[in-house]
Amino acid sequence: MKVPATTGLARAPAEPPPLRLVWPTVDVADLGAVVAGFRANGHVVVRGVVPLDVIDTVCSDIAEVFALQARRLGVAEPDDASREQVLAVMQRVFDYDVSLWLAGVRHAARLASVQRMALDASMMRLLDAFGMVAPTLPTTPVLHVMADTLRVPGGYHGLAAHQDWPSIQGALDSVAVWAPLYDVAEDGFPVELIPDSHRHGLWPGQTTHAALEVDPSSFTDSDFVRVALNRGDAILFSGFTVHRSAVAGCHGLRLATSTRYEDSAEPTFVDRAWPCAYRRIVERALLQPGFPSAAQVGQALAPRPARNTP
Ligand SMILES: O=C(O)CCC(=O)C(=O)O
Q: What residue numbers bound the domain in which 63 lies?
């Protein structure tokens, strides 16, 4: 690792990154070890933290979002919310119209179930263990979709090396929780990170539309570690941990959510009056002029049967 102006380790030759194990890996039952691991390393892998029924609901809602478009387009709907079926229906919508697929991904990120996962009691327990006072979310959870067959030309296909803090600029002790919705193997687009990179504070980099990307001359590919995660597991990392999407050699569909939590009482956060680089922007002009008619409003409000949601 070539860290900013502190060490002078040699640049490794360009070759595929070795698959080292991320340490530490802790069961959620040992919350003390979770926090200790995070504080010592800037990241920790927590096994079994997100309840599976909470994840199941997210997956079936995502399947439903794309099923709604599949029905409209007259293409096959998913039979269930398995990864294979979700990929298949996403693929059909993608092949029909990439912008419709993108709209589906953006819409799925707004699902109540995604937000509920971020606010589940399991997450609140974690934040309590970290000693967070009146924790806040600087923005809603992010839904990350990666698949080799769902690659928008010139569009998003993973994030380059970055730290989260510059995108938020809030509490210095923020914790990001990255949780897969299906198992993620080491060749299934995991997140990879540089252990101990948080110790160097802000790394030099360049602002892009997606992040403040860390200067590639500051690291080598072999500095990154990746780990396979099962559904229910999560990686917790600091706002200063350098991380990126693993792409090389990866395939399949990977779905994950990530949420950032901040401690209202972090002293510099209080002194800086809780800044937040995220902005909510509202388009005031009508997106579809002339829509809706009064009849459409009436129809939308007509009685319909309740759903038995889990
Ligand atoms: O899911 C990914 O591939 C990237 C996640 C990430 O870098 C982030 O959440 O900051």
A: 52-119
What number does the ligand 1 atom closest to the CA of 167 have?
10
Length of the chain equals 310
Residue identifier of the C-alpha nearest atom 10 of ligand 1: 164
Q: Is 169 left (phi over 0), alpha (psi -120 to 50) or beta?
A: left
Distance 179 CA to ligand 1 centre (A): 10
- The sign one gets for the Cα dihedral 221, 255, 39, 274 is positive
Is residue 69 located within the same domain as residue 196? no
10 alpha-carbon distance from chain centroid: 32
**pTM for this prediction:** 0.91
Flag whether 57 is in a domain. Answer: yes
Residues 163, 31, single domain; the answer is: yes
| Same domain flag for 211 and 146 | yes
How do residues 104-141 score in pLDDT, each as one tens digit? Answer: 999 999 999 999 999 999 999 999 999 999 999 999 99
How many structural domains compose the chain? Answer: 2
Residue 246 CA: nearest ligand 1 atom is 3
Tell me if 258 sits within 8 A of 176, measured CB to CB: yes
| Inside any domain, residue 10 | no
Shared-domain flag, residues 173 and 217: yes
Ligand 1 lining (C-beta closer than 6 Å)? 142, 144, 146, 158-159, 164, 178, 191, 243, 245, 256, 258
Are 24 and 79 found together in one domain?
no
Looking up residue 241, the CATH number of its domain turns out to be 2.60.120.620
Instruction: Look over the chain and give the mean of its residue pLDDT values, rounded to a whole number.
Output: 91
Question: What tokens were used for 209?
Answer: 């539309």
Identify the residue whose C-alpha is closest to ligand 1 atom 1.
Answer: 144
The pLDDT tens digits for 24-47 are 688 888 899 899 889 988 999 999
Identify the residue whose C-alpha is closest to ligand 1 atom 3.
245
Residue 140 CA to residue 156 CA, distance in Å, equals 19
My answer on whether 215 and 108 are in the same domain is: no
Atom of ligand 1 nearest to the CA of 189: 3
